């Protein structure tokens, strides 16, 4: 019989020719058929042909005028190169043979992987019949009969799941090897012999390196024996390994055998790190042993985190280390993240105890709390501790952790309208969502999930003020977003709402005079201060807000955690905001500690406005203000500071962009020009006022009446309605009208104590008159001190009235919230405010004649700084040693900040009498 094979693929044509060679003479020719068909002359016997071509199954057709007895055309509309083939096989060798056959025909290689299929299957999602039959034909030639299986979907990829026919009749124990790796050759060889005697195919792999042995457990990875394929073989392997472990006298409480439920690969694997286990250099990987766990302490203060590392090391956590990270990476607060350690009760308790103890020692006791989070890998022996310390001392960490923006709050009550003040307060705090629903509620309760303790305490304190009920927050585990749920029954008659405004002490009430006969203002605002991304409102004044920038000297908002906007401070802030809007130079005169400087810096922090603060004194010269010549060997930095000055400023601010004292710092602008040639040993360096004119900084002249009058007169032109300055000390270049433009954000502020203070100069009327926004800042009274204390302990910003407009109070994270749980604190705070005010009056700080220190040349000075120090002491570890301040701690604070500051027994007796009069005996 004459046969012709016509095909575009030489390899496929040769395979067909080999299959037909026993039936006659075969001729191969190249062509491009588009179908698989068998053409024959009429009367040709096709039975043998069909059998030889199985399972190709070409279409059969009789043709009279053929040039041969039979013509086999092998082709398709899409050739084999249009189809990709993925091979999954239980034998690498057999997978290689299948791949070679597919490559020869032209199929696209998609890769190979190890698998243990139960049967031989060709699966596809739409491959052509010709491509599938060619593959089945190739597999038949390799001794495999595969079943076709259609998969859902579309695509041309084909997957072959195959078993090696060479091992089909062998038991699993002989079909697949057991590979043994270890660090003790004698034990590896012993197990190899046991495996061979038990009917397995042992293989000895590469020895475990020291690093691998230190990380590996004594392990059996069953590979092809796992996943319930061969439970008898897995039990047999497990018994052999346990016998080996017992003979080696391994401590199985620390180093037990781990049998994995399943593993990939064409072989089982055994790991034997025996030497590492016996040497003691390998940490345990099981049991409640501290040395089993590696503790990584992430902190923004390495020195304070070292205290925790040292304590954990003493407790047996030998692998504890400190990793210094930015504060921004610790936004979740104090957190311990663990896997296996969290499931060991004794280890978890040990970690909680030691971390909590060091937190308290470092000033991070309640309301800070330690949260526990499970790692994604429950078997991980790593413990990660987030230990933030920046902001613990000044209270700013409490503010950051209690930011409501990440949380939702929901109120359930029969009539939400009865609690509109609560809802308004929560919305003013900035919760991510604040909702109210009608529901029958028999009793008040507070539930939470994922909300930090400081924010829970803030909500609890507000509820206690409004309901009179002190609720205990209850954890409600959910899978949703972190949130708070408040359940309140109907509001009782007379329940407390907003606190009334504080009265103004003194014989003349300026506020009452202002509003007398005036119509109430038509505009209505919520909070006294409102901050958006682009602007800030203070009272009724809107100011543009700078975008984020790399400018230096921008005050850090976290530095104002203790800043209470009482009535007087709110009036000062409103006056400053109006001065900024009107471009008026602003001079604030008042006694020490009346928030003059801090109010300027607070407003600048809200506006992201750089402030250069210059502390003036009798030695200040004009060079420190407008500029001077300096040695040219001291290059200027682009931020306006010399290298040495910039380093000093960085140290003085702890690396933060805060306003700093610049008494001795010299400024230079990046655009500063030089009036000398490059070979001169001197160059001109701009002062802070010139740099501020160029870059739009605020200039804050502190203690302005300590400087010599002729120095102040140098800046007279800067205080004009259109600021201007001529650098007569340099090149006579000018800023202002007719010269270089002054930056639109440039402003000038000054502070001063009254001229009666020692060493102060009397400002000339002409100079004082240039400060168009001159204001006298009165000292705080009892109501202001009480408001400050309420804010520090309970986070309550008071209601304030400014220029006849009343702004509601609000709640914020309390900087000293740890004192809120002390029962006596609610009686202590008003008594303390009364005592402090009386003490100021007795020392002659008001209009009263001094009774305290009357014979001294210098009178005693008691200010809000001492009052703040007193309550901070009570909230420190010195005061909270037993959880709440003791009577002894209160007396220690009184001695430290009041009684210890007076010199005579008579004066001390007077202070004690004032304490008794205020109810603090």
Question: Can you offer a commentary on this structure?
Answer:
The protein has 921 residues and is an alpha/beta fold. It has seven domains: 73 residues; 71 residues, no CATH class; 108 residues, Alpha-Beta Plaits (2-Layer Sandwich), CATH 3.30.70; 101 residues, Alpha-Beta Plaits; 82 residues, Alpha-Beta Plaits; 198 residues, Rossmann fold; 103 residues, no CATH class. Helix content is 31%, strand content 19%. It is built from 28 helices and 41 strands. The protein has a five-stranded mixed sheet, covered by helices on one side. α6 runs antiparallel to α8 and α26 packs antiparallel against α27. The protein is elongated. The chain starts with a strand and ends with a helix. About 6% of the residues have low confidence.
List keywords for this structure.
5-stranded mixed beta sheet; 41 strands; 28 helices; Alpha-Beta Plaits; 921 residues
Please report the first level of CATH classification, the CATH class of the largest domain: Alpha Beta
Here the CATH topology of the largest domain equals Rossmann fold
Strand content: 15-25%
Count of all domains: 7
Principal-axis shape equals elongated
Percent helix range: 25-40%
Fourth CATH level, the homologous superfamily of the largest domain? P-loop containing nucleotide triphosphate hydrolases
Continuous helix count: 28
**How are the strands ordered across the major sheet?**
2-1-5-3-4
Mean pLDDT across the residues is 83
Level-2 CATH architecture of the largest domain: 3-Layer(aba) Sandwich
| Gyration radius, in Å | 42 Å
* Number of beta strands: 41
CA distance, first residue to last residue: 127 Å
Largest sheet: 5 strands, mixed
Unreliable parts = 498-508, 636-677
Secondary-structure content class: alpha/beta
